[in-house]
Amino acid sequence: MRGLLASRPIDEVLREAEQLVRAGVRELLVISQDTSAYGSDLRYRSAEWRGEHLETRFLPLAQALGTLGVWCGCTMSIPTPMSIRSSR
User: Fold this and answer.
1) Which residues pair with 41 in a beta bridge?
2) What is the pLDDT of residues 51-61, one digit of tens each?
3) DSSP-assigned letter for residue 11
């Protein structure tokens, strides 16, 4: 059994990722029950990171993580009717 989706705001995730990279981490792995639904529970709320406003969605998260200069991966991207509709 799993509970309700509980996404962390995108700026919070990115600040943590930056701290990890500064500490010497060379690989980041985004793990969740359903990464494709990331942010839907927050209504894709926008947040600022490095002077840019980003929606709390998986694509902006992946793009921003890609700028940190380390290997990034993700798990559990399960396309559901809700996540497919919300991506349009």
Assistant:
1) none
2) 999 999 999 99
3) H
- Give the SS3 label for residue 19: helix
Q: How many CA atoms lie within 13 A of 74 on its CB side?
A: 17
Question: Which CA distances in Å does 18 have to 6, 22, 72?
Answer: 21, 6, 12
* Gap between the Cα atoms of 67 and 86, Å rounded: 25
Q: 77 φ, ψ to 5°? A: -90, 95
**Helix 10-22 / helix 58-65 crossing angle, nearest 10 deg:** 20
Cα 69 from Cα 76, distance rounded (Å): 23
pTM score, whole prediction: 0.82
CA atoms in the 13 A half-sphere facing the CB of 5: 17
